[in-house]
Amino acid sequence: MKLSTPRWWYVREGAPAPVTRALLKPVSWIWAAVTARRIARAVPVDPGAPVICVGNLTVGGTGKTPVVRELLHRLPGAHGLSRGYGGSEPGPLRVDPRIHTAGEVGDEPLMLAGEAPIWIARDRVAGAQAAAKAGAKVVVMDDGHQNPSVKKALTFVVVDGETRDNSWPLGDGSVFPAGPLREPLDVGLARADAVILMLPADLAEPDPALIRTLIKKPILIARLDPAAPPPPGPQVGFAGIGMPWKVERALKAAGCELVDFANFPDHFAYDEATLKMLSDRAEQFGAGLVTTEKDWVRLPPAWRDRIHAWPVRAVFEDEAVLERLLAPFS
Questions:
Q1: Cα angle at 264 between 261 and 268, to 5 degrees?
Q2: Sign of CA dihedral 33, 213, 198, 201
Q3: Burial 45-81 (b: 16+ CB within 10 A, else e)
Q4: Which of 79, 105, 122, 314 gives 131 a disulfide partner, CB atoms 3.0 to 4.6 angstroms apart?
């Protein structure tokens, strides 16, 4: 059973569930120690093409996949690489959107495969080697900052920039499962080359306190901007991503007449009963249904014409800085 991301992970002050957090602390120490030992003992393998990693410091959605999409568009001859989380195929396998399903290859690879060559592999080295052998000039790896098996030529870590309403993307500094961090902040930042701070489209400026926290590395400001307006008229929205509540807020900020919104766990597999429930809810309001592109590719084909996929893209404030970082791979 998939569990939803706890919102209390991302509370800046006065987070609830203090007893739960205290009980989870020892587990988080073990998690951090195991991660550190695995990274320290690894000997990274050069797969035959430079690898750009787009990773996370935290568990949960930060906007990594839109960044991967943007880099694939900017880099000639780039192939994407994903673990294919949620899919049954172990890989290495090049994703073909004409024949593969999200249940086989994962939702994010399937979403990107119509725009660039995308590979999935649970063994990241084998996946990167397969992409290089197939002619990739550069491999853009979605996630994998904590995977030390592949030699990385450039590493971005994407950090959520939402700090309104007592939100704090790094929580209280605790490592999973006591908090959202995958490893201690300073440790994860030390291996990164740059931070991409992903702001909501309706947030004018980043929080200065968050900038000070991340200032040890170059910071690129980016936004998740709508690639198209939301569908007109009243809508019932839903999302099964790392932080589904961010989709609700983004839809409202983009002018969507949102009458209801349903949150689901990340990579949620939509079944007929769930979709019928959503459809009935929309009918009560005389509304349409809207979701993310990532959710849309997980829908049964019979439902796709009935549900609107709302696209967003990563837009960088300082194009010159990004271009300088990518220049060696262009």
A1: 135
A2: positive
A3: bebebbbbbbbbbbbbbbbbbbbbbbbbebbeebbbb
A4: 79
Pairing of strands 78-82, 138-142: parallel
| pLDDT value at 314 more than 80 | yes
What angle do helix axes 319-326 and 64-74 make, rounded to 10 degrees? 70
Cβ burial 91-129 (10 Å sphere, 16+ → b, else e): bbbbbebeebbbebbbbbbbbbbeebbbbbbeebbbbbb
Residue 78, H or E segment: strand 78-82
pTM, 2 dp = 0.91
pLDDT for 66: 93
Tens digit of each residue's pLDDT (9 = 90 or more) over 8-31: 788 877 767 677 778 888 999 999
Token representation of residue 67:
């960044």
Task: Give the closest residue to 318 by CA, choosing from 233, 197, 215.
Answer: 197
Can you count the helices (H) and strands (E) in the chain? 12, 13
Separation between Cα atoms, residue 292 and residue 310, nearest integer Å: 5
Whether the Cβ atoms of residue 119 and residue 127 lie closer than 8 Å to each other: yes
Distance CA 28, CA 171 (A): 13
Tens-place pLDDT, residues 154-178? 999 999 998 988 889 998 888 999 8
